Amino acid sequence: MEHVKCLIIGSGPAGYTAAIYASRAALNPVLYEGNEPGGQLTTTTVIENYPGFPSGIDANTLMANMREQAVLLGADVRHGAVSAVNLDSRPFRVTVGESEELLCDSMIIATGANAKYLGLSSEQKFRGLGVSACATCDGFFYRKKTVAVVGGGDTACEEATYLASICRKVYMIVRRDVLRASDAMQRKVLQSENIEILWNCSTREVLGDDSGVTGARLERKDGEVFDIAIDGFFLAIGHHPNSELFSKWVETDPNGFIITRDGSSRTNVEGVFAAGDVQDPVYRQAINAAASGCRAAMDAEKFLKQ
User: Fold this and answer.
1) List of residues 6+ apart from 46 with CB closer than 8 A
2) Which end of the chain is more exposed for a tag (fewer CB within 10 A), N or C?
3) Tens digits of per-residue pLDDT, 51-71?
């Protein structure tokens, strides 16, 4: 059975950066990319806020560059997804796919978190063409335009407030007759002149054409159906961390995000580290994920030396 020093589960900025640092530390890392090589970042288009690229960079190009850098430094980057783990004792036992097994002395979990969507076929059709789950990532493209934000919690209010600072008009589509957000976030929304809250509304369909999103069809609780004209449609109804595979052993918060210790990447299981969105319920930015991947590799190196 194959036995590796450092196993990285998941790609994206956290996983690839962990592989870069682990390679330079001579840990001979093995990385399994999972079912979505490059992670959730590859569902967006141009990234304007990643440092070092004044004109922005295509998300898929950035992930391909990170992957290539990790490989050139010696990382063994493999296609395939980890299907099972056993963290009862070290070395940890890992199953890839249906039956392939290996052992590892340390593990970096970088499986990310997926944004929650409404489940509409039209929503999927226009992903990357006006439908987004990250206002800070994609809001720049909608300057002085009209957009909608779905949700009524703190995240939705925060995203709506941010978009209101750059967009002409922001609709908030809220299923209830109240916001779930904190009082402070509610005040920010209610004090923004260009935010209009559409109470008791749910989205029936995202409308668009070959150029992208052009509107949304909504339904009120009383049955009234109406359309709004928008250029962008932002989901802010939460994220789902991909932590189920490890939750029997690794401590998580009530929403499933892996809890790390003392500002490090360490989990409650010795030799297991977490990086990126799977342990970050707050920031969820590529640069933050990359930084946490760096920390995880350095923590793993220190652990293995000890």
Assistant:
1) 56, 57, 58, 59, 141
2) C
3) 999 998 988 999 999 999 999
pLDDT in tens, 96-112: 998 899 999 999 999 99
Choosing from 235, 253, 276, the residue where a domain stops is: 235
Q: What is the mean pLDDT of the chain?
A: 94
The residue from 6, 104, 137, 294 that is catalytic is 137
Catalytic residue among 6, 104, 134, 157: 134
Q: Which of 138, 231, 277, 280 is catalytic?
A: 138
Report pTM.
0.79
- Whether residue 134 lies in the annotated active site: yes
Last residue within a domain, chosen from 192, 220, 235? 235
The range of the structural domain enclosing residue 149 comes to: 117-235
Same domain, 123 and 213: yes
Active-site residue, 167 included: no
What tokens does 62 get? Answer: 């950035």
Distances (CA, A) of 108 to 19, 28, 29, 132, 283: 10, 13, 10, 28, 20
